[in-house]
Amino acid sequence: MDYWQSLLKRFLRNECTERENKIVFHALRTGWIDEDFKKTIESVMNNPDTGEYTAKECPVPNAILDDLRKKIRSGSMKKRPEIHRRRIPEWMKIAAMFIFFSLSWLFFHFKMIKGEPEQTTAMNTVTVPAGQTVNLLLSDGTTIWLNSGTVMRYPDSFKDKQREVYLEGEAFFDVTHDQQKPFVVHTDGYDVRVFGTQFDVEAYSRDDFATSLLSGSVKLSSVNDTTQVLVLQPNTMAYLLDGNLVSGDIADYNHFRWREGLISIKDMSFNNLMKKFEKCYGIQIIVRNKHVENYVYTGKFRYSDGIDYALRVLQRDVRFTFSRDDEKHIIIIR
């Protein structure tokens, strides 16, 4: 049963809601009707003996019903009125567009004055667990290796004039060349700017910074001191000496084998070796044995072997003991 037939029959039975009554009375009083309603009225009114309603139940006066019959038979029922939309003047359209673009310009200009970017790019953060390394491939094709305990932030894609990443820890970069869009590594104390090159950055803290260049060129600049600027050539490195940035030749290329999961040391004192173990394994090491300070080591350890294995290997050459406080995450050398 269609909508109009159901509505009319419920109306004749006095079963319509207040809203439905208004719809039917409007159609009956104004003579407005569409073809579906017209056919329904004809069907219902020409078949009074269907048993679905009686004359007593019908709330519509006989005069209205007679009038409806005449209009239906004469074809004088009104058609659905057409809706005429008012034409908007051309000058109003132009004025509306001008106001829209003016407000848009003011909005973005206000954001730029406040130092907020026009667009925000989703940033990813990678934190490398102690004793592990991670390899990343960025959207521009740049490959990055992250050392143990490193935190790296980088965008989903590089949409600005610079390709910028943020580093806390150590990372080796193989940067895809792009002369129009330099690659910048931000650390706590220094920025490293390149266009396409291979280099290593170690920046676990403001006072622990070093950059080694294998190919290409890099420009280093201090975040807090604009006079500290240094450009490196291949096979050289920059490091801090008494708070100042200095450069020199790369002494040991085995250091970069940490990408293979190796801890490589060359002529390193026991205390410096313990500091390296602290970075690699994310644990504090306290040396209380003064005797071990005179020893110098050269060799390699695997990250996967763990700190306990490395210390037991060292015990073969020098006498010391060690104990762990797992609750405080400390190793004490005695």
The largest sheet, given as strand count, sense and whether it forms a barrel, is: 13 strands, mixed
Distance between the termini: 95 Å
Mean pLDDT: 77
Order of helices and strands: HHHHHEEEEEEEEEEEEEEHEEHEE
Under CATH at level 1, the class of the largest domain stands as Mainly Beta
For the record, the CATH architecture of the largest domain stands as Sandwich
Say how many strands there are.
Answer: 18
Strand content: 25-35%
Radius of gyration: 42 Å
* Helix-strand makeup class: alpha+beta
How many structural domains can be distinguished in the coordinates? 3
Q: What does this entry look like structurally?
A:
- The structure is a single chain.
- This protein is an alpha+beta fold and 334 residues long.
- The protein has three domains: 72 residues, no CATH class; 131 residues, Jelly Rolls, CATH 2.60.120.1440; 73 residues, Phage tail protein beta-alpha-beta fold.
- The chain is 27% helix and 31% strand.
- The chain is built from seven helices and 18 strands.
- The strands form three sheets. Strands 1, 2, 3, 4, 5, 6, 7, 8, 9, 10, 11, 12 and 13 form a 13-stranded mixed β-sheet that branches. A three-stranded mixed β-sheet has the order 15-18-17, covered by helices on one side. The protein has a two-stranded antiparallel sheet with strand order 14-16.
- Helix 3 crosses helix 4.
- The longest helix has 24 residues.
- The chain is elongated.
- It starts with a helix and ends with a strand.
- About 13% of the residues have low confidence.
